Automatic annotation (TrEMBL):
This is Transporter. It comes from the Bacteria. Keywords: Membrane, Symport, Transmembrane, Transmembrane helix, Transport. Belongs to the sodium:neurotransmitter symporter (SNF) (TC 2.A.22) family. Its main location: membrane. The chain crosses the membrane at residues 12-28, 40-64, 85-111, 144-163, 175-196, 216-239, 251-277, 297-330, 342-364, 384-402, 423-444. One of its GO terms (cellular component) is membrane. CDD domains: SLC6sbd_Tyt1-Like (cd10336). SUPFAM superfamilies: SNF-like. One of its GO terms (molecular function) is symporter activity. It is found in: Membrane.
Amino acid sequence: MKKHEQWTSKLGFILAAAGSAIGLGAIWKFPYMAGTNGGGIFFAIFLLLTIFIGAPILIAEFIIGRRTQKDAVTAYKVLAPGTGWHWLGIGGVAVSFIILSFYSVVGGWILSYLWRSFTGTLTGLSQAEYANLFENIIANPTEVVVLQLIFMLMTISVVQGGIQKGIERASKYMMPALFILFIILVFRSLTLEGALEGVEFLLKPDFNNINAETVLLALGQSFFALSVGISVMVTYASYLSKEDNLTKSAFSVVGLNIIISLLAGLVIFPAVFALGFEPGAGPGLVFVVLPAVFNEIAFGGIFLTIFLVLLLFATLTSAFSILEIGVAALVKDKTEKRKTAAWSFGLFIFLAGVPSALSFGVLSDVLIFNKSIFDFADFIASNIGLPLGALFISLFVGYRIPRQAVKEELHAGTKGIGLIFDLWYLSIRYLVPVAILFVFLHSLGIL
């Protein structure tokens, strides 16, 4: 048995962890959620809840992972031997399996758009034609399955390389590139005539739009965007050394996630408003409205290609972490088994995701509780798996692990955390579980 792998640097861990969090949640889901829920007020609430609810859960996952230096299943066995808490880790692996099964389908859609953008067939269409194109792509069984497979092969090829030579190395290139591409797009969007209206929509809260629905949706978006609740960050933190500052690392990840969400809004909303499109277009905002928006500006095809490249990077870095949690649980430090585990687990996820890929075409008539296969998988993972996982993680750290052990782990690599620890510990024991419970009950239609 070889020594447990570790990140080569704190920066490498932060970029990989931020890459895990920064994916479709920040770039695809956040803009349309903000667009349909009041813009500035949604962003303001999302910002507050990410800091005060999402960050504490992230720190809790970091504590579990680094304390044990084990995978997401074994970690709970070490901290709570002889109990059933390890099912929390097993549940995280299962939910991550479901997430990547439909997440890879969207990754395939991005590859489809990127190919069309490179070949020049994605420009010069009307908004109605962009809508028809999206419907035709997701309904084409051969295209969606083949591209889903290609996306999974790209993910597997990185994860099989391990933490240092695979995930960390890829993240060190992809994350800086993502920020550079975003800055280019933000600059272009803000220079459009009439862009200020879009900036105001995103950054100027209208308190008339605030209601319980907006608050609950913003909290759900915070969980989705940070990837908390499935023990992904337990796995990533298990590769940390005791010298790393968990609090600073957590807030670095949270900060980068907020910045990317902000940049995504500053790319999309100024352009949407400047060219007279509807910000509340919903999930089709990126795949239908945005291509139409870029089609109206000079060199729009180039800027659309840049956006799709960064969207692919963000989607892949998230996919790496989602696949890693299962691979780590299978390998258990036996690094010679990593390649086999990555390929077998990854291809199994691909096969399980084929029905989701076909749910807008040949399997469109197959409904589960009035939802397509894709939507049902999304609902099970996002509306049940994530909030339940986050709830039990907060309870595990808040009530199962001795307070002194939690404090010692958070203190390692950190100086002067007395007040910070007290506030965080109160939050993880009381505020966080109550907030998550509200989100969970809302997702089930009880509230």
